[in-house]
Amino acid sequence: MAFNPINWLLGLFSLDIAIDLGTANTLVLVRGKGIVINEPSWVTIDKKQRLPLSIGLEAKEMLGRTPGNVVVVRPLRDGVISEFDVTRVMLEYFIGRVHEQSVVPLPRPRVVIGIPTGVTEVEKRAVYDAVMAAGARQVFLLEEPIASALGAGLPISETRGSMVVDIGGGTTEVAVMSMSGVVASRSLRVAGDELDQDIIQYLRNKYNLLVGQGIAEKIKMNIGSAYPLPTERTMEVRGRNLVTGLPETVEISSVEVRDALSASVQVIVDTVRDALDEIPPEIVADLMDIGICLAGGGALLQGLAERLSDELNLRVWVAEDPLTCVVRGAGMLFENFDTLGIYIVGLERGSTHHNV
Ligand code: ADP
Ligand code: MG
Q1: Which residues, in sequence order, are CB contacts of 118 under 8 Å at separation 6+?
Q2: 19, 20, 23, 60: which to mutate for ligand 1, most atoms within 8 A of CB?
């Protein structure tokens, strides 16, 4: 983009930020700077005083290790805010950190933030209110698939249709877009977290081994897959034997993990197929050129693109840096307000206030 001195000057005195408030991770991008925060959406809270103790990475590291008076909470569930106050505190903390990084005191920021497609008016307003309460001057809502598509470089403002499958922590969001916006969508509560649970279940059933969610996630990232790997691998897993109660190490293979994940992976495949069934043939034809784009952390599951491609007979590709697509795409709004402004989601006036 060409250097624009007016924008540069404005940038010195105002702050435009994009936020991806995810069930698993929250990312913050500052216009002109790039991504400055990328941390798990976790908060630890002192149960008695209801006070946050740690936020982000620090909180996630405490998972499964907290003393009795401390709980680790994720303020979002299934892509929407489930704990309003905790969300506000978390956003306040992240936005505050962005401010700290600046040498001059800045006015409150303008914020663009992604929301899942198909959420209710109340859920939308909760996001809006949480960001305002966290210190924003102005808030723009953008549907996440639109943001993902922009971040992945898909030509959504052209007439051609495109499709994004975003696999996050809590939900898989399937969206078909053409120039008017999202034309078909599916939201599924099977995503990264569910895959972790599948691994926990498998180890429990087959080896009587109890492992925590953090370890299950590591197994998934290391040797999890949705399609046979060129060379299958193994990994040592530590946990507690449920029968003896003693610590134990078990060696598991990528074939076993794939087996553990297969039912959930199939649900994801079927949902994508279902969405494809609904779209007009013209758009299907477009997809034959452009393929289906995978985004979100779940897109990194080895062999997922191959598996989908095999079953759907379409090209399926993983976006570059799928974990940051939404925030990068949302950030593009400030650069191209004229063309992308049409995608901003409005709020109905006077809709009822959410319950905290
Ligand atoms: P959200 O938008 O819900 O915050 P993200 O897009 O940040 O979710 O993705 C988080 C999910 O991606 C987690 O379930 C995480 O385990 C999963 N994930 C991240 N990296 C990998 C990987 N290499 N393989 C499989 N899953 C991954
Ligand atoms: Mg996401």
Answers
A1: 185, 187
A2: 23
Which are the contacts of 202, defined by CB distance < 8 A and separation ≥ 6? 256, 257, 259, 260
Task: Please give the sequence-ordered ranges of beta strands (E in DSSP) within 228-280, or none if there are none.
Answer: 234-241, 247-253
The mean pLDDT values, 10 residues at a time, for the chain of 356 residues are: 66 84 96 95 88 90 82 88 93 91 81 92 94 94 95 89 96 90 92 98 98 95 98 97 96 98 98 94 93 98 98 97 98 93 86 44
**pLDDT 10s digits, 77-89:** 888 899 999 999 9
Ligand 1 centre to CA of 274 (Å) is 23
Strands (E), the chain: 16-21, 25-30, 34-40, 43-46, 51-55, 70-73, 76-77, 80-81, 110-115, 138-143, 162-167, 172-178, 181-188, 209-210, 234-241, 247-253, 292-295, 316-318, 344-345
Calpha distance 302→298 (Å, rounded): 9
User: pTM, whole model, 2 decimals?
Assistant: 0.92
Give the rounded distance of the alpha carbon of 87 from its chain centre: 15
Best mutation site among 27, 220, 223, 261 for ligand 1 pocket (most ligand atoms within 8 Å of CB): 220
Residue 292 CA to ligand 1 center (angstroms) comes to 18
